[in-house]
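Dear support,

Our group has been running a series of protein-ligand predictions, and this particular one with zinc ion is the one our PI (initials K.S.) wants archived with full inputs and outputs. We had some confusion internally about which version of the output was final, so please treat the block below as the authoritative record. The input we submitted was:
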Amino acid sequence: MTWKSPFELAGSWYKGNLHTHTRQSDGDATPEEAVAWYGDRGYDFLAITDHQVYTAGGAFATPDLLTIPGVELNGPGYHLLAIGTSDLPDLAAQADAQGCVDAVLAVGGLPFFAHPYWCGQTPEQIAPIKRVTGLEVYNSVCERMDGLGNSSAYWDALLAEGKRMLGLAVDDTHWRHGEVGVGFVMVHAPSLTVEHILAALRAGHFYSSNGPRIQDLRVVHDGDGKPALHISCSPCESITFYGSASYGRRIYPLDGALLDAATWPFRPEQVYLRVECRDAQGRVAWTNPVFLEDL
Ligand SMILES: [Zn+2]
Ligand SMILES: [Zn+2]
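Confirmed final output from the archive:
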């Protein structure tokens, strides 16, 4: 598999939140109020993911906002975000995380572990589970409530072992903690349809953010033909390349100036590189990983 940057493909970028609760479970807004909030603020799509309650694609949609099928499944020691299923996955499968992942796949969905840091679900517990699409690298409500929203160290531990997982930033909106509008994904797709958004999520053609925009991400080669990862973004105080253990690098001007691009070479010890761009307000954008074996 050769890695393809979404920035090198035809299409457009669409903003969405993939983890939202409503009064269908433990959220304080109705589905109609949820859709209106995001639609009024320039979001393109929303997944309503109530606990154990399935919301179909197109349900509650408005001319301003596409809705993606979703549900959050709550098993012992883990929560699983199921995006794009054709129906409610078999709830009897939740007793075990692998069974739950497979139940989501059986109805055509994308399974992501939700807020693993908050759940106390360790990388060692996640590593053996097969066919999971990814995890939430950032969950706004877990950050607000308990300071446990950032699961990036868990993500790195799994990526360093070669486990292929994509990373989502989400609000996990419950409408009472100030978490709304903080974590989102930018998805690159040929057009704004449920099918195209799901295909782009599956392919990893997205990045996650609390604010900074990523404007390019691509593999470049130096004069000797050695590959490096190049990123450009909205003005940020640091750009950090993460690879296995300490084989990445944080790049920041010593004089405190902002930067909007950086490049870092691939090395075999890294296994992968992913990038975080942090702005002067402390907000972060996260790329998905690029694995060296895909170059
Ligand atoms: Zn949850
Ligand atoms: Zn949730």
